Amino acid sequence: MLEKDLIVIGPNDTATDREAFSIVAKVKDEKYIGYWTDKTEQITVFISGYLSNVPKPFQTGTGRAAAQTLAALYAKYSTQAFVHIDGAFSVAILDWRRGAIIVGRDKLGIGRAYLCRDRDTVTFSDSLSDLIQAQSREREFDLDFDSIYTFLMIGWIPAPYSMFRGVEKLPPGTVIESCDGNLTQTTYYDVLNSIAHVSRRPREMLRQQVAMQLDRSVKRGLALGGRWGSFLSGGVDSSSGVSSLAQTNSALPTYFGGFAPWLNRYLPNPEEPAMSELVAACFKTDHHMLWLGPEALEGTPEIVGALEEPVSDGGCIVLSEVMRAAQQQKVDGLMTGIGGDFLFTGERRHMVPNLLRFMRMVPNFIWRGINWLSGIQPFVRNARISQIHFDLTRLLAVRTLSMEDMYAGFFRQAEASELRSLFLPEAYTKLTRDPLSEINTQFRRVRELNPLSQILYLDLKANVPDDLVREAETLGRHFGLTIYNPFLDAEFVDFAMSIPTAEMVSGLKLKVPLKTAMRGRVPDKVLNRKKGGLGSPIRWWVTQSDGFVAKVLSRDNLERRKIFSVETIERFRNATANGTRDYSKLLWSLFTLELWLQQFTDRKNNEVNTNVRITQ
User: Fold this and answer.
1) Which pLDDT does position 380 carry in this prediction?
2) Predicted structure pTM score
């Protein structure tokens, strides 16, 4: 690792001289940040994250070991080195021979990578706040109101956009090279290549290969070293991961996080705690049941600060508390089930193509009648009926939409007219781009694929890097844990995407290949039950007139901010409390956005905490 906290070199007018570079590198945590210069002093590598799959005889690892491996691979393959590695990382390579800087992000966008660039400068960091602080003397950054609008519409901000204009999130599987004043951006990995080359396999062969791929991926995570534990929500994905981990770890610590029983009615599936305990007993793990109360909400400012972006759901609170417990119990890393839903069709939207085919068989007026009935009192107060009403409303609305609009509709938190009423006129005039421009661009690349393949591609390309995966990876860093997602191992992803979609979904049954492979390993009760998730009582929180959310979204704060209409927010809150319309995710998004604004635009005189800043 760096022997000094701070290294500064340069500048010099000679482009090929090492003094042509200005390097500021401050290492905060040697577990994640690695630095290495090869023996010839021709290549310097900074890496944040880990390498989990590299060609032999090179070594996987984190920190210095990862930087050393990547330096050797770059010396052999140049920028093609990225094709040969997998992991969760952002990286900067200084090629002193050519006077070049290469920055890159892992294949699936698990690691964080932010950059600023202009005609002759690239500034790069794995942290948004560090990047802003590093550049604060050279430029001012304005809020990106288009990103705020996109976030409030769909719940996340797709790369390359960020919360600030002039700051980009490097897209997954991307390398940018700066040399001789020229900037070149290249996509070195795209899951589309696997989706476009599907292959059918005999049923038994497919079953064996799915199990084998999962086991191999888990072993690659274990090879990173340290004491490993696992999330165990009681769902198919985390239970499948534990079934692989338990083969090599007899004292495996596992964790379930949920809210107090009286809040269970807000959870997607109240059976999850029992399923979690069932799996833990089956594999004899050291299981920990973490029960959270409503006071867990008070940890949200810390979470938003660590994530460096607002969030649209409360699952991050559960993630945070589980990670805190694992840290206290001296666990080095946690494995998750994140990604299984995207590889093996576990989300409700993945059955939509089949549902729409089925709905065409029944007259439209019947569906509208069912939808009306499920939306009246007192049915709407039942969480499951409310979800049915919500899903059916969306299905009826998306039947005639394009794939682009349909996909956005799965995440839409409010209609365009509602968002317009939310923004004050002077703030609304600052919007300049289509909020779905990046999603539409991605869809144009996959027009020739079938509808389900298009949805899976967008999940992996746009939703995975900037939503739940970002939350887990970033919070893991915050608590000093390595987070490994076996289902997001690129080799496993390539394999899963080569399975024909007709074999992924059978009627309205999802995750067919994974459940078939886990039959006999994971209890049938887990495989046969409905999907759950990391639930939290955000609907209860956002409707409490004297609660923490209301205090953050106070009239004083909103009027000082001059972005949103106080009256519209109050109307959304009343509608959610009365059950006439559910704006809970939108209100939660506004709550975390205000917390983010307080920390990232209101605070002053913060200490510069740069991991890696490289300027040519």
Assistant:
1) 63
2) 0.88
